[in-house]
Amino acid sequence: MTNTASAETSNFWGVDITAPHPRQDADLLSQLNFIPGLKEILLLRQVHALEHATVWVLSERHVGNAGYATATQPLERDTLGGLSTDQGFYLYGQVNLADLRKAVPLALQRLTSGEWDLAVHPRCGTNLSVGMFLTAGLALGAHLLLPRGPIEQFLGLSLAAVTATQLTPDVGSLVQRYLTTSIPFNLAIEDITATTDIWGRSAYFVQLRWKE
């Protein structure tokens, strides 16, 4: 899969008003630093984006003796999972630590260089939440608008479920792009280690910090 910055962005007087800017989060923090927890929220969004980009990089490439190769056997991305925090992210799956230590800085470099689509991943939990929200909302709407007969209600519920399934990928991607992730212009990599999470599961932890 090729991930490039989306060409379908909004423009105003020839200026892309949706394009990420290197100072956007830093400027927001300097202006609204009186809001409790704002820095942690901004950090979490950037960490979330880097988590996704790392999974993409690990999925599409493997590491050989000379580093990343272009002709590769992709790692099965369905075996990889992540969990973001404001301190960094956990990565789960069969990954070599040396490979991960090469993938994370590469993912960070590609994201901040313009491959913004790497911040969005179809298996993100955001999509699951969006799907549940859409299904519940459409089902409630169908229940209120359609006759109370069992056949009509069943057809309405079925239509709501099908419609939500069709809408979820696109809506989920938009929510990820503009709400739950942010391009990590302010992240610096501290350390990458093998560890266990708070539930005792084996994982790797990519420790990150905020930089101006």
Question: How would you summarize this macromolecular structure in one to three sentences?
Answer:
The chain is of the alpha+beta class and 212 residues long.
Main attributes of the structure:
disordered N terminus; alpha+beta; two-stranded antiparallel ribbon; 212 residues; single chain; 47% helix
SSE blueprint:
Blueprint: E1 11-12, E2 15-16, H1 24-31, H2 38-60, E3 63-64, E4 67-68, E5 81-85, E6 88-92, H3 97-112, H4 125-145, H5 150-180, E7 187-196, E8 202-210
Antiparallel strand pairs: 1-2, 3-4, 5-6, 6-8, 7-8
Helix pairs in contact: 2-3, 4-5
Bulk shape:
globular
The ordered string of helix (H) and strand (E) elements is EEHHEEEEHHHEE
Content-based structural category: alpha+beta
Largest sheet: 4 strands, antiparallel
Strand composition percent: 15-25%
Question: Percentage of helical residues?
Answer: 40-55%
Annotation, overall tally of beta strands:
8
Q: Quickly count the helices.
A: 5
Give start-end ranges of low-pLDDT stretches: 1-15, 63-75
For the terminal residues, how far apart are their CA atoms? 32 Å
Mean pLDDT: 87
As a whole number of angstroms, the C-alpha radius of gyration is: 20 Å
Oligomer: single chain
In what order do the strands lie side by side in the largest sheet?
Answer: 5-6-8-7
Q: Could you characterize what this model shows?
A:
The chain has helices at residues 24-31, 38-60, 97-112, 125-145, 150-180, and strands at residues 11-12, 15-16, 63-64, 67-68, 81-85, 88-92, 187-196, 202-210. The chain is of the alpha+beta class and 212 residues long. Strands 5-6-8-7 form a four-stranded antiparallel sheet, with helices on one face. A two-stranded antiparallel ribbon has the order 1-2. Strands 3-4 form a two-stranded antiparallel ribbon. Helix 2 crosses helix 3 (97-112) and helix 4 runs antiparallel to helix 5 (150-180). The longest helix is centred in the last third of the chain and has 31 residues, at 150-180. Mean pLDDT is 87; it is low at 1-15 and 63-75.
